[in-house]
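fyi for ur records
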Amino acid sequence: MTVLSVSQVNTYIKAILDEIPPIQNIYVSGEISNFKHYYQSGHMYFTLKDERSQLKAVMFSSDNYKLRFRPENGMKVICFGQVGVYERDGVYQLYVRDIQPKGTGELQIAYEQLKSKLENEGLFDEIHKKPIPKYPSRIGVATSNMGAAVEDIKNVISRRYPLCEIVIVPTVVQGDAAGPDIVRSVKMLDSMNVDTIILGRGGGSIEDLWAFNTEEVARAVFNCRTPVISAVGHETDYTICDFVADMRAPTPSAAAELAVPNIANELVNLQNYAGTLDRLINYRITDEQNRLDTISKNSPLSDISKFFEGIENGLDDRYNKLCSLFSDTVSKKDLQLQKSAATLNALSPMAVLGRGYAMVTNDRGLITSVDSVKPDEKITIQVCDGSINAKITEVFHSG
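which gave:
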């Protein structure tokens, strides 16, 4: 009797299963349940089930990193892989190498999942939308430099608003390298002091446009300080980039029209504004002239002679009062002067001299005593009408 260990049995069963070709490359359809994604290792573990049975499945990180969507419980899928035995637990399971959604395409599911995620985070909210400058001086364009889109953008901007400078950053817009290159171009234009960024490409399949549905591009557009116009594909094509951008244009040509004004229309508007301004100014001048005429007719100043007549009468009254006051003042001052003159005249030595008195002086001054002179000295005798020079011959003392 041969006795086998548990490990030997599991190894034996695994070897048998590994040698059965039909289950080495097998497609299995079912509904995902018990889905778990261990982010530290990156492996995915889940169960595939139908109405009657279930099958354990595992998809290692070396395979699942290529998935464009995230598997979820309840999702109906078709898994490709091989059936094998996990020897440690003694269970057989499906080792999945690829998963395709059943009924709905892989990219469509990935699109809806990312759209829902970013919408819940608020990246589509209108509050974050920046206004597009009406009169830009520089427009940045991130697109392929060899497609029809870039030529359409250049032609439209040059025709509508030739005052604007166009800064083109050649960008990969399709394939695996497109996502990182779009992010690089957006960041570069955001640092180049442009007024608006046009990001886009021409139409194509969902696979062709997929770079504009990636999370890295969506977040780069959302974090851009410069307003972004998304112009990806044709009018019916909607990408995640369209929802995140500040404005969505149905085509690259439409984006160029939205980014700049039509200079011909602006000139017409300026002419209309100038005409309107002239009319308003003329209306205002006419209104002010009429208003001034009305004021002049109803104002006391309308008959200026009456206005000055009252002032003239007032001046005459003031003049007469002033003359009278001046005459009275002069009379009073004249009387005071006469009195003062009489007083001074009474005190004047000349008045005394007029009564027959004389004033005698020598070279030393006024002579008031006989002791002040001596014989033969010359003296001067002042009388009321002149002076007399004399010489003393003799001096007498009174008493």
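Residues 304-347 form the longest helix (44 residues). thats all i got for now
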